[in-house]
Write a structure and sequence with these properties.
By secondary structure, the chain is mainly alpha-helical. It has helices spanning 10-25, 27-38, 42-60, 67-87, 91-119, 124-149, 155-179, 181-190, 199-230, 235-259, 265-282, 289-303, 306-315, 321-349, 352-355, 357-377. 48% of the residues are buried.
């Protein structure tokens, strides 16, 4: 008799990747509704993404030694956090439960990547790239669902619906863990144990993902404003360039997954980063909406495979689940810091174009670190 597959099953793992994308991108589209519903000032509204960022970072850095448990606990925490966020009457409670829900999502993001990387060792980069396509698809789907549902349903019901999806994932995984615990233990016993990374290598990988998070978020935050100022388009048309960036990034991942069955992972990483650096530099010389849009699409396409391939290369060094989670959480630190620094540089110089030297430097840093990583592998 064939034994059951270890939990989480591939469909449930895929569902988890999709949910984390949905949950990560949900707050932005509903911020105006939250501000109106609770009569929040801009300063108060700004505390909500801060709580989300802190929660996700702490969640990613506290993954358990058995990431399957973190996946289940994270799903449950995300469901409870979103459910309580839906009914929270005032800002202090909203911040607390949003932190808790984001902590759960951070646990899910880190544990699901660790689980996938440990399970699909033969084509790790390809598998992680394909599964992270689902994360990107969820991030794209989240604002669409918010825009479709909120005109017809109260925000509370929409949030409770999202919370229920996470609760379903938690229930399914807990059931799967109970039914396959014996095989999971046997499988774990046959795997070579993870070895803690040397501290220097740990810092190297943390910097690598911090730069990735810094670059991706800087483009996401500032592309619309860049188009508005230098492309001469309306706000709605300028917002479309950011959507084009995300669509290109999402489409690049399944294509990259297929390419990785034929191309070595580090070669695809280096080629993508080289083209990404040139594409980002091209933004400095563009003055038309069409040109900025075309380059934004290229940047998204070249950026698509970078994170999953890089994380696969990191997992090849067999870090512990806790180390892998902390390294992954460092992308959130970069994501918080660089967009803020870009705003400061733009204000001091009076030029957002000048501020884009920071993500260009991040792309160049990623390329240089990629070359160092190849040398460390032999």
């Amino acid at each position: 008799m064939r034994s059951p597959a270890p939990a989480p099953s591939l469909p449930l793992l895929s569902f988890g990747f999709l949910l984390t994308g949905l949950g990560t991108a949900l707050l932005g589209p509903i911020l105006p509704l939250l501000a109106a519903q609770h009569q929040l000032s801009d300063a108060s509204v700004g505390l909500l993404p801060l709580a989300q960022f802190l929660g996700a970072t702490v969640g990613g850095s506290t993954v358990l030694a058995r990431p399957q448990r973190s996946f289940a606990i994270g799903s449950l925490a995300a469901g409870l956090g979103l459910g309580l966020f839906a009914v929270a009457p005032a800002l202090p409670l909203m911040l607390a439960v949003l932190f808790a829900g984001a902590w759960g999502i951070g646990q899910m993001i880190a544990s699901s990547n660790v689980i996938a990387g440990a399970r699909y060792t033969r084509n790790r980069a390809s598998a992680l790239t394909l599964l992270n396509f689902l994360f990107s698809a969820g991030a794209l789907l989240s604002p669409l669902l918010a825009s479709w549902l909120t005109p017809h349903l109260p925000l509370r019901q929409v949030l409770l619906g999202f919370a229920a999806l996470f609760a379903v994932a938690a229930a399914l995984l807990l059931t799967g863990l109970n039914s396959s615990s014996g095989e999971e233990t046997a499988s774990a016993a046959s795997e070579p144990p993870a070895q803690p990374l040397a501290f220097s290598l740990f810092l190297f990988f943390a910097l690598l993902l911090a730069l990735y998070g810094a670059f991706e978020t800087s483009l996401n935050v500032w592309l619309t404003t860049y188009m508005l100022r230098y492309g001469g388009r309306s706000l709605a048309a300028s917002q479309a360039v950011t959507s084009a960036f995300w669509i290109a990034l999402t489409c690049a991942r399944p294509l990259s997954s297929a390419a990785l069955l034929r191309i070595r992972d580090y070669r695809l990483q280096r080629a993508s980063l080289l083209l990404l650096t040139f594409s980002t530099a091209a933004l400095f010389f563009l003055h038309s909406a069409a040109g900025i849009t075309a380059v934004a699409i290229l940047i998204g396409f070249f950026l698509g495979p970078v994170f999953p391939v890089t994380f696969a290369l990191i997992l090849a060094h067999r870090p512990s689940p806790r180390q892998a989670g902390i390294i992954l959480a460092c992308s959130g630190l970069g994501a918080a810091l660089l967009p803020w620094l870009m705003g400061i540089v733009s204000r001091q110089t009076g030029s957002l174009r000048t501020a884009f030297a920071l993500p260009l430097a991040a792309a160049l840093g990623l390329l240089l670190l990629s070359l160092c990583l190849k040398r460390t592998e032999g």
